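Entry:
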Amino acid sequence: MAKDRRLGKGLAALLGDSIESTAGDASGTDPANTSAATDTPKSPSGFTVLAVSEIDDNPYQPRRHFDEEQLAALSQSLKQHDLLQPIVVRPKGARYELISGERRLRAAIMAGWKTIAAQVREASDRETAELSIIENLQRKDLNALEKADSFKRYLDEHGCSHSELAKRLNIDRSTVANLIRLLELPDPVKQSLANSLITAGHARALLPLVTPVEQIKLCEKIVRKALSVRAVEQIVQDSLFDAEDATGKSSGGGRKVNRGAGQSNPFQIARLEQELKQALGTKVDIREKTGGKGKIVIHFNNHDEFQRLLTQLANRATEQRRVG
């Protein structure tokens, strides 16, 4: 709900007094009055009636697919109750270009209407693009890739950063970045996402994998076994650990014996790993590099074990501070 309110502020900044009508359509509902429908729809006070043939599509519309059943239901509603919320258009030469309300316009045409109520206002290409993004971000059925495409196109055309776009749309920067990253996935994975075979959460979980082949293979496994997002994240994490382990092992599978200056004896490392394993109750790897640098990797098998380790380490840190 908080996100919807923030997006609403973005709409208000672009449309001013027309925010209520635009937000209603963006949420997927078209409130209607109780008057009987006529062949010529009534125009709400203060708005203009335009011929539907004079209105061109919005070139910045993120949505590529419209649910025919939903449009048919909306069309039937228009026939029964007429239209309370006008569409929003801008003048474009001798014609008009749609800014907001494409579902309503399509449903009106489906209902056989020749005219429709519209608010006519001036808007730049940039404002039109922003409004199209905001309107569709609120829609639950818009595909994540369609949102990502609209973000990427906006950034390319207007030369702004992720942070600037997020600020203009009044959304989190992470929302922009996470969606655009989905476009980096290989085509078979994006197709699975577009067809709702996997979710955006699944798709994001695949991003850390190094090669497209790995991403495609795991995507197929997600579809085949109906894996949860958490399960995919664990598989990816394990895969990355295994790959990192492989770079720290000799071709024979054992720990490298050759040491650079300042590195510990491998037998000392092995002993320390065993001590930590006994203390923490889980596998621990010590990976030392030259110059005294390195890292300690603590393994866990599930979320509960992760929480146990966090608590255990936090308690020990507290004890050390008390002793100190």
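Residues 71 and 107 are 5 Å apart (CA to CA).
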